[in-house]
Amino acid sequence: MSNDLAKLINGPADEKIVSKVGDQNNRSPTKSRNPKTHKCQVCTREFNRLEHLNRHIQTHTGE
């Protein structure tokens, strides 16, 4: 099979590689990783989960 005929059937190899890499780069995360939204009012530490904040508050109250 000639090189030109192979390109028509399979397409150029370089374009396939570029399109695969381009697909990975176009992904954008909808959420940021580890958003810290629950803040301690005593020491200003931040936690991802409310239950972790509630457990932390016990260190301030002595429970």
Automatic annotation (TrEMBL):
UniProt key word Transit peptide: no
GO molecular function: RNA polymerase II cis-regulatory region sequence-specific DNA binding; zinc ion binding
Entries under Gene3D superfamilies matching the protein: Classic Zinc Finger
Entry-linked SMART domains: ZnF_C2H2 (SM00355)
Keywords per UniProt: DNA-binding, Metal-binding, Nucleus, Repeat, Transcription, Transcription regulation, Zinc, Zinc-finger
Biased composition (Polar residues): 22-32
Domain C2H2-type intervals: 38-63
Xref: InterPro entries: creA/MIG_C2H2-ZnF, Znf_C2H2_sf, Znf_C2H2_type
Subcellular location: Nucleus
Organism superkingdom: Eukaryota
GO cellular component, one term: nucleus
Region (Disordered): 20-39
Transcription keyword on record: yes
GO biological process: carbon catabolite repression of transcription from RNA polymerase II promoter by glucose
Function: May be involved in transcriptional regulation.
Family the UniProt entry places it in: Belongs to the krueppel C2H2-type zinc-finger protein family.
Protein name: Mig1p
